[in-house]
Amino acid sequence: LPPPVMATAAPRPAPTSAPQPDALSAEDARKAQALRKMKTVATLLLVFAAVVFLIAKINEDQGTWVGYVRAIAEAAMVGALADWFAVTALFRHPLRIPIPHTAIIPKRKDEIGRSLGNFVESNFLTADVIDERLRGARIGGRAGTWLAQPANAARAGDAVSDVLRGALEVLDDREIQQGLEHLIESRVRATPVTPLLGKAIDLTVEGGHHQRLLDAVLVGVGGFLDDNRSTFRQRLDEESPWWVPEPIDNRVFNKIYTAVSSFLEDVANTPDHEVRDSVDTRVAALAERLRADPELHAKGEAFKDEMLDHPEVRRWIDSLWTEAKRGMISAADDPDSELRVRLVNSLQQLGARLADDPEMQHKIDRWVSDALAYLVENYRTEVSDIIASTVEKWDGESTAEKLELQVGRDLQFIRINGTIVGGLAGFVIHAIGQLL
Q1: Which long-range contacts (CB under 8 A, 24 or more apart) does 210-214 make?
Q2: CA 210 vs CA 258, 273, 280, 291: distances in Å
């Protein structure tokens, strides 16, 4: 029978492995093949030296020249083995024997990563190096020439729109809405309403807009009288005593109606009519009262507070950011929107101006240089830390294999040169021995 099922804790998820160097690419595969080829050549040289040494040792009594051959082969083997040990010790234990001070890279990869980060920080990420590299780059001129082309301006507009849309999508809507609501409400509450209305009236009077408003009112009143003439006539019948004959009512109504219509027409057609002067005087007096009368000021503030606290106004303020965000995202997504068209045109005009304005180009170059220098001076340590921490997360053996793949082929030439130089040294040493 199976054992009873016991309640156990949920299994812990397996720890994720640290990021490792990338898998072999096509270029890395080519380098691996070249590395194997060079290792074979260096090893064959060692084997060749060993075979020559054995043959020379067996036939050493055949003549003096055989001694030179044996010495050359012997020294070549020593040089080849020494350099093989040195090269191999960088990446692993030779013959898998844990000899001290071997497998240097796997054991000290963290220190190597930190040293590499410090090297990059000290020798590449400096303001002087950045400024020297940018001095002849003519970033401003090149950017202007590139932006002046319509197709490039459209591509830049697409990029700016993508950035705008991305920024809008990641923003915290609630925080933005609360900030916008607080800003609008605080500014409105801090602005006295009656002096503002008084100033608006002054500007209206200065531009003569109130007279045009009066003209519109007169036209409207005249039209109202015409549209409701029968209604007014009927009302006169209702108000007139019963004993007054209807012809008299007609004459009275026609006279009053004609007088009122003539008066309205006279005011409308006479720029310096006394009614217009009276309106100017009363409007100016109202503006002055709005600026100076404490009672009107208090009423205006009370009305303003009442409006701000009205539920409909609150809902309108709350919807401002949502509507604005929706509109901006929609405009950013639509290539034919007014926002995109204006953005592309502005970028193209900026490019044309920048391409023809050396002073502006110099300012752009200086600004880019200063901005990069600031970033380098203040954040280059972070780059060094990224390099060091990334290397620390790598597996030691994988790191060694990756580095050997990149530089191992060149290191095999050390083995080849060691074999050749060792043989030459053996020849010289044997010759000196013979002379002595």
Answers
A1: 210/279, 210/280, 210/283, 211/271, 211/276, 211/279, 214/267, 214/276, 214/279
A2: 26, 14, 8, 18
In this structure, what token pair is assigned to residue 365?
């170059």
Q: Is the pTM of this model over 0.85?
A: no
- Residue whose entry in the numeric block shows the structure tokens 């001076």: 377
Q: And the tokens for 158? A: 């697409």
**Among 147, 145, 168, 144, which Cα is nearest to 157's?**
147
Q: How far, in Å, CA of 189 to CA of 55, rounded?
A: 106
With tokens 């071997």, the residue in question is: 102
Contact by Cβ (8 Å): 247, 168: no
The number of beta carbons lying within 10 Å of the beta carbon of residue 61 is 7
Mind listing the pLDDT tens digit of every residue in the chain (436 residues)? 344 443 343 444 444 444 455 556 788 888 889 889 999 999 999 999 999 999 998 887 777 788 899 999 999 999 999 999 999 998 888 888 888 888 888 888 888 888 888 888 888 777 777 777 777 778 888 888 898 898 998 999 899 988 988 888 888 888 888 888 888 888 888 888 888 888 888 888 888 887 888 888 888 988 988 888 888 888 878 887 777 788 887 888 888 888 888 888 888 888 888 888 888 888 888 888 888 888 888 888 888 888 888 888 888 887 888 888 888 888 888 888 888 889 899 988 988 888 888 888 888 888 888 888 888 878 888 888 888 888 788 788 887 888 888 888 888 999 999 999 999 999 999 899 888 8
Placement of tokens 């309106």 in the chain: 279
Between the alpha carbon of residue 418 and those of residues 46, 84, 141, 399, 425, the distances in Å are 10, 9, 54, 26, 10
Query: Nearest-5° angle of CA 161, CA 167, CA 169?
Result: 100
Q: How far is CA 364 from the centre of its chain?
A: 18
For residue 184, the Cα-to-chain-centroid distance in whole angstroms is 28
Number of alpha carbons in the 13 Å side-chain half-sphere of residue 133: 11
